[in-house]
Amino acid sequence: MPFPHHSSREREPGDRGRGFGRAQAAAVGVTVTTYRRLLREAADLSRQDILRAGETVGARLDPELVDELEGIAVGSGQDVRELLAINARTELLAGGSECSLLGRLELDGGWLAQTWDWHPALAAATVVWTVEAGDRWWQTVTEAGVLAKLGHNDRGVACGLNFLTSSADGGLDGTPIHILLRQVLEGCGSGAEARELLARARTSASSCITVATAGSADLFAAELSPGGARFVEPDRDGWLVHTNHFLSTPRAGEDTMPATHPGTLDRFVRLARAARMGAGVPQVLAQHGEVAEPVCRHGDPPGTPWAEQRATLAATWCRPAWRSLRVAAGPPCRAVFEPVSAPVSLGARG
């Protein structure tokens, strides 16, 4: 697989972080330098602003997660405050129109597939990370130094992500979105547990976390905003499609996308149409067409400012009932979905 695949077997969070940081020091460095520039150009934050934001985030995180990030910082030679801030990058950067997701509820459970669209410089920071902790494991595709993003676990729970935007977004109160993704992967063993976690979550930025599970055969999208969580269920035919606008009804006084991002509506319609016509997952996610925002993105118009450049860095496809994660390391029109090896465990055979 073109992306590095790092396996962590250390039991203590600090040891796990140091091992990851040493092995992925170059990738962590790309993460830090890229976000330092993104936060400066897109959010007008100086490095001192970023460090202060990191201190604020660290004071509210689970101490074990802070220990892990401190380990990554020591192992890679970075400032832990910067890594803490980067784990709240959704909160520090305004939401955008990136990532396209589809899922299906079938007899053996739900599955998820999506593109991950973000700044092209971060392709060099992307890693597949497998964490084994006792008799449990989880896997994620993320930027080195960010504690989780897209992935699945041994108990048959998978998660995906889409950015959203609402008028209530702002600040660093609540739980960062990427920390919520880590909590789903590390701590949830069923759809019910994931629903409970996300229903009580308090966030300062809007995003949609979609969860598919085996066993209980669950599939849902949790649309998160500072006003709370709203849940979206699959259509009657079992499909669930999400791009970058709210599908649930906005709360009174809370403006939401897509008013200024018509591209998200176009991608939503084309994903749903292609899926229902029987196209395979790779073909659905590889759609281009003569549109402003293709599902599979590469090649920004000439003159696009650096901070606004976007590309499809990867695509993922999780089938929780099979404990299966496949990753396309690049735009799915060019890259092949390849399986990620998972630890052998009772959960993986269940």
From TrEMBL:
Residues 1-22 are annotated as: Disordered. Gene3D superfamilies: 1.10.10.2120, Penicillin V Acylase, Chain A (3.60.60.10). It comes from the Bacteria. Residues 108-249 form the Peptidase C45 hydrolase domain. Residues 7-18 have a biased composition (Basic and acidic residues). InterPro entries: C45_proenzyme-like, Peptidase_C45, Peptidase_C45_hydrolase. This is C45 family peptidase.
